[in-house]
Structures are given as C-alpha cells and as structure tokens.
UniProtKB/TrEMBL annotation:
Documented EC number(s): 3.2.1.22
Claim: Isomerase is one of the keywords in the record: no
This protein's name: alpha-galactosidase
Catalytic activity of the protein: Hydrolysis of terminal, non-reducing alpha-D-galactose residues in alpha-D-galactosides, including galactose oligosaccharides, galactomannans and galactolipids
Gene Ontology MF: a single term: alpha-galactosidase activity
Composition bias, Low complexity: 293-357
Pfam families: Glyco_hydro_114
Signal peptide: 1-17
Region feature (Disordered): 278-361
C-alpha cells in the first residue's frame, strides 16, 4: 500500500478509535461533582480548571452549557451529565410533558418531587428526549438518578426490582444509540444484573451505610465507582479514615471518593486531606439548591467505637435504613428523613481480575488528549467523522484510479 493511503487509513482509524469509551473510564479516577451551580471554565485551555487533576466532572444536564462542556473536554475532562431518571421534579422545564398516570407517591419531605412509573411509555419518551438533549450538548456520559424506587416501603413502590432492571437496560440502549455511555446511580441491589450495560457507578454514602463492599465485583471488572460522602465539613482525620481507608470485606480499594457539602457546590475534600473550590457561576434561579436524598450524617466527631458498630458480616448484609439518591429538591431547608429500607442478598465473592483496558500510559490516553484538542466541540464529532471517513474513501478510490491509468498509459507520473 502506498504511503499516503496508509497514513490516510491510519488517521481515519485513529479518529474512530478515540470514541471507544473503555479508554476513558478507569478505576480510581479523581472526580468532582457540582449540581447547585455551573462550573466556570477558563477560556484559555492553558489555564486549568480546579481541581486540575480531576479527570471526571459530574454536572447538571439541564443547566450544563455546551460551551462549558466543550471547555472541560478541551482540558481532557470526562463530562457526566446528571438528571433524575426516576422522579418527577416540578422545577424542570419538561415537567408539563408528564401525565398524572406517570406519577406515584410524593417523596417524603421532598415537596414537588414524585416517584415515576418506569414502565410508562410516556416516561420513557421523556427520558429519551433528555438523553438526546445531553448528546446535543456534547456530554460524554449520563448519570441517571433515582432508579432504585424498588427499595421503597410497601405503598411507596412504583416499580419492581425486575422493572428497574429492564428500565436500566432500555435506558442504556438509548444512551448508547446517542454515542454516549451510562452509569448506575446507587441501586446496588441490581448492580450484578446491569453491570454489563453500564460503564461506571455513582454512589452516595456507601461508607456511612457500610455498603461499599457491594462494589467489589464491579471494581474488579475494571469499572470505576465515583463515591460521595456527606460528613460535617471540614472532615477530620477520623472521618477520612472511615470514609477512605480500604478495609477487607468492608471498604474496597479503588473507590473515587469525594467528601462534599449537601449543597453539592464547588467545594470538595479528598481522602489525602486536600481541599479545593471549583469556581462556579449561579445556575437557573428558578431551580432550588440540591440536597442528597440520604440520611444526615452524625457529627464528624464520631469515635472509633461508633465506626466499629458499622462492621458488616463478610457474607450477609444487615438491613439499613436510608433514602434514595442525589437530586435537586425544592428550596426547603428541612432535612430529609430516610424513607427507604434496603435489604441485599448474600455477597458473592469476586474472582474477576481487573481490566487491563484504558492503560493511562498507553496509546488510549494519548489519543484521548489528541481528541480533546482537535475536536473541542463534542457535538460535532460524529458528523465530522461521518463526513471525514467518506472523504477518505473517495480520495483513496480517486488515487487508485489515477495510478491504474498511469500504469496503463505508461505515464511517467509517480506516487510518493
């Protein structure tokens, strides 16, 4: 093959290969999550957003701006776009599209939010539109909240466990069709059933509720878990040890842990004791500030004896009372009361070896950096590749035609 054809094909293959999500998500990646405002990204890529070493940013899908997403990606960041996939929120711009039959019970202490019936075709149509919105804005992946309604007490359930599994698989198909990938938010009770259709997980307070061991197999498969705890801030060394230090059968290694305010603003604490604040600007003034749907943590002055009471058996999970997942509630200062009881089955021992994909020192990272620099506007990538690939094919065909005519006519024209 002539050299120019070789390089054209190589370039086209490399461009197509840059969209393999397996080279992006890695166990232990540092991340930041901001839902109460919009990150302010410097216009000059040489000026790094803080924290500069956070590889993943999780931001609100509705308030995310395409320019913000593109600037984050230009700095090599992976952008997760958050929306509630399992509840109706009266402050969202598409609220009028939900029908009365789609809605279930109101979330306790969460005025303006109701559980959704995930088998509803109308609900699925709305969620598919939200996914398309994220794709248009250029998001890399989706962080879909509130998919664990099957854990609600009797009388509060709008979805069964199997229906939740089916819904996650359906939603993942929609996300994949839109050239993105998807994670699992909490919902540890179905993680083994859907692990093949999600690329990462986002968890709230598994250390506090002694549930982190449920991610052992997931982490061993090479998929990251972005883990959020809500201690009193700033967290003291005892809290950091409890929330961060790997412990066999309790807290697995490899979690991507942050300690955040319940407002989920720009402040973030990490396990190494570091603290930074990401610059942000106000979002939509009509959207209330977020609060996690989780039990409020006791004072961060807990003693070691308090921690020892959270030790779980290695084979079975005790029942813990908690509520579901992170979202934007109405602007009430009332602390949410836990309303969900979760019971998990016997733990399965992992024998899976960590995935070798996504080597941070390998070709994948170099191509990812090249991708971010060459195509900062993510929403145009697929269209560019489609057009580019077609052009390469036409150039190759034209070149071959010229070469053959030159040979037939004993032309003196030569290719380089």
């Amino acid at each position: 093959m002539k050299s120019w054809i070789f390089w054209a094909c190589t370039f086209a293959t490399a461009c197509l290969g840059m969209y393999d999500n397996s080279i992006k998500f890695q166990v232990g990646q540092k991340f930041q999550i901001i839902l109460s405002s919009v990150p302010t990204v410097p216009a000059n890529p040489a000026t790094r957003i803080i924290p500069s070493d956070a590889q993943v940013f999780d931001i609100d899908a509705f308030e995310a701006e395409p320019t913000t997403i593109a600037k984050l990606q230009a700095q090599g960041k992976i952008v997760l776009c958050y929306f509630s996939a399992g509840t109706y929120e009266e402050w969202r711009p598409d609220k009028a599209q939900f029908q009365a039959a789609d809605k279930g019970p109101v979330l306790p202490e969460w005025k303006g939010e109701q559980w959704l019936k995930l088998t509803s075709q109308n609900v699925r149509s709305i969620m598919a539109t939200r996914v398309q919105m994220c794709a248009t804005k250029g998001c890399d992946a989706i962080d879909p909240d509130n998919t664990d309604g099957y854990n609600n007490p009797e009388g509060m359930q709008t979805v069964s466990r199997q229906e939740a599994i089916d819904y996650i698989k359906w939603l993942s198909g929609v996300v994949t069709a839109n050239n993105m990938t998807m994670g699992l938010k909490n919902s540890q009770g179905i993680i083994d059933d859907v692990k093949d259709v999600v690329t990462f997980a986002v968890n709230e307070q598994c250390a506090y509720f002694s549930e982190c061991y449920l991610y052992d197999n997931f982490l061993a498969s090479g998929k990251p878990v972005y883990h959020i705890e809500y201690p009193d801030l700033p967290p003291n060394s005892t809290v950091r040890t409890h929330d961060c230090e790997p412990t066999p059968s309790i807290l697995p290694s490899g979690l991507s842990t942050v300690m955040k305010s319940k407002d989920l603003d720009g402040r973030v604490y990490y396990c190494d004791g570091s603290f930074v604040t990401t610059n942000t600007k106000p979002g939509d003034p009509n959207v209330p500030p977020p609060h996690p749907k989780s039990t409020v943590r006791p004072s961060s002055t807990r003693t070691s004896s308090t921690y020892s009471s959270t030790q779980r058996p290695t084979s079975t999970k005790g029942t813990s009372t908690r509520s579901s997942t992170t979202t934007r509630p109405p602007s009430s200062s009332t602390t949410r009361i836990p309303s969900t009881t979760q019971t998990f089955s016997t733990r399965t021992t992992s024998t899976a070896a960590p995935s070798q994909s996504g080597n941070p020192n390998g070709f994948g990272l170099h191509m990812q950096i090249f991708e971010r620099l060459l195509f900062p506007m993510s929403m145009m990538r697929s269209r560019f590749l489609f057009v580019f690939t077609g052009m390469v094919g036409k150039v190759i065909a034209f070149g071959e035609g010229v070469r053959m005519r030159a040979q037939n006519e004993n032309d003196t024209f030569a290719f380089p």
